[in-house]
Amino acid sequence: MKRRLTTSLLAALIAVLATLAVSAPSARAASTLPSMSVAPYALLPTKTALWVSVPSGTVVTVRHAGGSLIGSSTSVTGHALLVLWQPSGSRNSYVVTAPGYATSTVEASTSATSLAGALWRMTNKRNALPSTYAPSGLQTVGSRQLTASAATAVRQLIAGAAAAGLTTGVNSGYRSYASQSALYDQDVKQYGQKVADNLVARPGFSEHQLGLAADLTNAPCTNASCTTTTATGRWIAANAWRYGFILSNAVGKTAITGWQSEPWHVRYLGTSLTAYVHARQIVTEEDLFGLPAAPTY
Ligand SMILES: [Zn+2]
């Protein structure tokens, strides 16, 4: 009896050791690989961005859940940006891999709900916002309104300028579809439609409707040429990225943005993305997200 028990115990022990020998290496490798943060951002009804946090120089690859390759991108300033086409109103799974990291699966949505209030929501002359688009949680800065994150950032920017001995403020912030419509109609009446279309966005095409864009003051200067030569204007151009802003109606980029040079117009994207923009010396949002130029409607 005792001998039979010893034999069966020994057999069980051998079986356990054999199982460990087979499963241990892969189990250990999987458990020790660090995970990476992958955040989906809705850009447009047919565009999603994945923002992957991995050390600079790491090549990040994204595939469809079925395994087919979509593309890859190299991390800069600790982040890789991947912009993906995705059917409007859909929910897709993506598989993200990078050497030395555990594989990550992320779900991204291009539903109207996901696009509403999305931090990186794009609009330009080729991409309209719905007339009903209105951000929630607006906060007041001076006499203007911005979304909470943009309001906090612009207050910090104003304080940063003040610390450098310069004065700026918010001349224009959130504009509803209706107020943009009134502004556009007024300019059409005053200058004619051709000129007005370079000066002010048609309703539904302004970043101001996102609640993420601000026109900064630079008294007494009110035009592009003095903005680019005054100390305040130069400070804004050099430092806006530190506060999470891009000068999206960039000087000399009308053929891409569709807008006249507006060095006072800043759009909030968050500091992690604008640090990436700054490091890569990207100027326009169209170039940043790989979107076609939008010179006309
Ligand atoms: Zn503006």
From TrEMBL:
<dbReference type="GO" id="GO:0009002">
    <property type="term" value="F:serine-type D-Ala-D-Ala carboxypeptidase activity"/>
</dbReference>
<dbReference type="InterPro" id="IPR058193">
    <property type="entry name" value="VanY/YodJ_core_dom"/>
</dbReference>
<keyword id="KW-0378">Hydrolase</keyword>
<dbReference type="InterPro" id="IPR009045">
    <property type="entry name" value="Zn_M74/Hedgehog-like"/>
</dbReference>
<dbReference type="InterPro" id="IPR052179">
    <property type="entry name" value="DD-CPase-like"/>
</dbReference>
<dbReference type="InterPro" id="IPR003709">
    <property type="entry name" value="VanY-like_core_dom"/>
</dbReference>
<keyword id="KW-0121">Carboxypeptidase</keyword>
<dbReference type="GO" id="GO:0006508">
    <property type="term" value="P:proteolysis"/>
</dbReference>
<feature type="domain" description="D-alanyl-D-alanine carboxypeptidase-like core">
    <location>
        <begin position="144"/>
        <end position="270"/>
    </location>
</feature>
<keyword id="KW-0732">Signal</keyword>
<feature type="signal peptide">
    <location>
        <begin position="1"/>
        <end position="29"/>
    </location>
</feature>
<dbReference type="Pfam" id="PF02557">
    <property type="entry name" value="VanY"/>
</dbReference>
<keyword id="KW-0645">Protease</keyword>
<protein>
    <submittedName>
        <fullName>D-alanyl-D-alanine carboxypeptidase</fullName>
        <ecNumber>3.4.16.4</ecNumber>
    </submittedName>
</protein>
